[in-house]
């Protein structure tokens, strides 16, 4: 690695008082998160750019090195789409969820628990930490059941049950495997695949898994990396902080729409289950997680109880 560090601001040339000030900025944050569990949801879109992906791996490794316990939950929607295209399999979505039949759930498991899981694990390992890739089936970690979805027919007003196939929702998260890995100094990297009755494989939305894992761990933070700076108001300005009640009002008055609805709902779910704060932040921004955790102003929108 080439050494490109600019030394002009090096503390060595400064007075003891100035040096103490520089450290004083960093230390409270390191102390605040020492030993804390931070769940990071890393979406499939955020993995696209090589530079950013390498930086993500380095940031997660750095968190571990400064005494934080990061737990990564990844997505892989675009990567599943690419594989389905190669296999000439069509896929359809209902409310942002992939309708998943028996043939498709095999592809989903192969891509999420295979290619993508090993890619994310590799990013962190190459940065000098030790990451271990698992999915919800390992250690029966994520017990899932078939997701029940209904839709009101606008003409008849009759509620219809939609069949999304093997799309699941977490029923129970057994955190023992996660604790065993973090306790041994390793970083769990979790693919959003769950196990149901009779060993059935379920495809679960990655935001949902991240929320459920953060809730079950009582994580200090859930960081949801996405493609906007956070929750934006009607004038497209970032809202730095929201309560659960603010989120509910934002959905009701139409400020929060589309893919942001399930995202904030999963954050609320995590917070209700015991996560101290869930943050929606921009995964396209270099060092997004570090800026949230280690600066006074934070980064993105934090949702707290
Ligand atoms: N109030 C809002 N603030 C920010 N984004 C919003 C808001 N309402 C809707 N959105 C939309 O939600 C999108 C994020 O959801 P989604 O595309 O599903 O994210 P991801 O692919 O990262 O899971 C944003 O790109 C934006 O178009
Ligand atoms: C049920 C369902 O839709 N599952 C998702 C799982 C991956 C995911 O959520 O990935 P992103 O975070 O990259 O969108 C899917 O099949 O695409």
From TrEMBL:
Catalyzes the ATP-dependent phosphorylation of N-acetyl-L-glutamate. Keywords: Amino-acid biosynthesis, Arginine biosynthesis, ATP-binding, Cytoplasm, Kinase, Nucleotide-binding, Transferase. PANTHER family: N-ACETYLGLUTAMATE SYNTHASE, N-ACETYLGLUTAMATE SYNTHASE, MITOCHONDRIAL. It is found in: Cytoplasm. Substrate binds at residues 76-77, 98, 203. Pathway: Amino-acid biosynthesis; L-arginine biosynthesis; N(2)-acetyl-L-ornithine from L-glutamate: step 2/4. The record marks 41, 263 as: Transition state stabilizer. It catalyses: N-acetyl-L-glutamate + ATP = N-acetyl-L-glutamyl 5-phosphate + ADP. One of its GO terms (molecular function) is acetylglutamate kinase activity. Belongs to the acetylglutamate kinase family. ArgB subfamily. CDD domains: AAK_NAGK-C. This is Acetylglutamate kinase. It is an enzyme of class 2 (transferase). It holds the Pfam family AA_kinase. Residues 37-281 form the Aspartate/glutamate/uridylate kinase domain. GO terms for biological process: L-arginine biosynthetic process via ornithine. Its EC number is 2.7.2.8. InterPro entries: AceGlu_kinase-like_sf, AcgluKinase_fam, ArgB, Asp/Glu/Uridylate_kinase, Glu/AcGlu_kinase, NAGK-C. The lineage of its organism: Bacteria, Pseudomonadati, Pseudomonadota, Alphaproteobacteria, Acetobacterales. One of its GO terms (cellular component) is cytoplasm.
């Amino acid at each position: 690695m080439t050494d490109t560090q600019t030394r002009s601001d090096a503390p060595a040339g400064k007075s003891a008082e100035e040096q103490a000030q520089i450290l004083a900025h960093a230390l409270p944050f390191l102390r605040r998160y020492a030993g804390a569990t931070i769940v990071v949801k890393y979406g499939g879109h955020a993995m696209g750019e090589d530079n950013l992906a390498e930086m993500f791996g380095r940031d997660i490794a750095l968190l571990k090195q400064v005494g934080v316990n990061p737990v990564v939950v990844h997505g892989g929607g675009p990567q599943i789409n690419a594989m389905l295209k190669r296999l000439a399999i069509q896929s359809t979505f209902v409310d942002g969820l992939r309708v998943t039949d028996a043939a498709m759930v095999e592809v989903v498991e192969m891509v999420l628990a295979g290619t993508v899981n090993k890619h994310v694990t590799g990013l962190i390992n190459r940065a000098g930490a030790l990451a271990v890739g698992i999915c919800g089936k390992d250690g029966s970690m994520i017990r899932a059941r078939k997701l029940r979805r209904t839709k009101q027919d606008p003409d008849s007003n009759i509620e219809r049950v939609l069949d999304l196939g093997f799309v699941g929702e977490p029923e129970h998260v057994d955190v023992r495997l996660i604790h065993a890995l973090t306790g041994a100094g390793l970083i769990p990297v979790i693919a959003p695949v769950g196990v149901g009755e009779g060993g059935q494989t379920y495809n679960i939305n990655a935001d949902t898994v991240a929320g459920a894992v953060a809730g079950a761990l009582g994580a200090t933070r859930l960081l949801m990396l996405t493609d906007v700076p956070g929750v934006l108001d009607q004038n497209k300005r970032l809202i730095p902080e929201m309560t659960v009640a603010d989120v509910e009002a934002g959905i009701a008055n139409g400020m929060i729409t589309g893919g942001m609805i399930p995202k904030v709902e999963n954050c609320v779910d995590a917070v209700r289950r015991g996560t101290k704060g869930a943050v929606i932040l921009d995964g396209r921004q270099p060092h997004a997680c570090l800026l949230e955790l280690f600066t006074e102003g934070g980064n993105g929108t934090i949702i707290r109880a």
